[in-house]
Amino acid sequence: MRIIKPGFIIEDEINGIEVLKKIERAGRTCYKSEAKITEDSCREFVKKIIASGHHSVLEHEKVTVRVVCDRSTSHQGVRHRIATFSQESQRFCNYSKEGFGNEITFVQPDFDLEEDDIDLLRAIEAHYFKKIAQGKKPQQARYFLPNGTKTEFVVSMNLRSWRHFFELRTSPKADSQIQALAKGLLAEFRRLIPVIFDDITPEEPTL
Length: 207
Description:
Elements: E1 2-4, E2 7-10, H1 16-31, H2 42-52, E3 62-70, H3 71-77, E4 83-87, E5 105-107, H4 115-133, H5 138-141, E6 150-158, H6 159-169, H7 176-192
Parallel strand pairs: 1-5
Antiparallel strand pairs: 2-3, 3-6, 4-6
């Protein structure tokens, strides 16, 4: 049995300024104002279209992210549209095989696990392997796996959809696990791509 921390990897190589320039070229088509494009006009143009609510132009660019998290967090993530998801399948993945280290991996929650929690996870792992050894298929044995089981998914969203994701999932009203994921991702997106996510500032929860 393993317990790991959640995390993410941005799969694309991102040049933030080139992203803005592509959006500007697309957006200025609407106004036939391409003649106004200069070497540094993209920042101000994108800032204005975000302020005006013309967010459809942001859909011309997308970012792909690989996320490692627990199943309960993934169930919230895959509800987002428009997005494309490819997720590790408990139906087909047999965790008793070498490819998974002959063990089940769980994700560390945002609280400390106590000794009886660890004992429970070990018992679940043992029961899963017992069912596999008895001839049950992975899609049957997965019935006994909890929400804390590690999963992995790759998600591609256009930038408008990413904005929506961050607006919802960095809110204090969001589940604490996906909040942590979304805040970490947002910080990385803001580092890589200027302007587009600057106006999204996560609120701090109130007591």
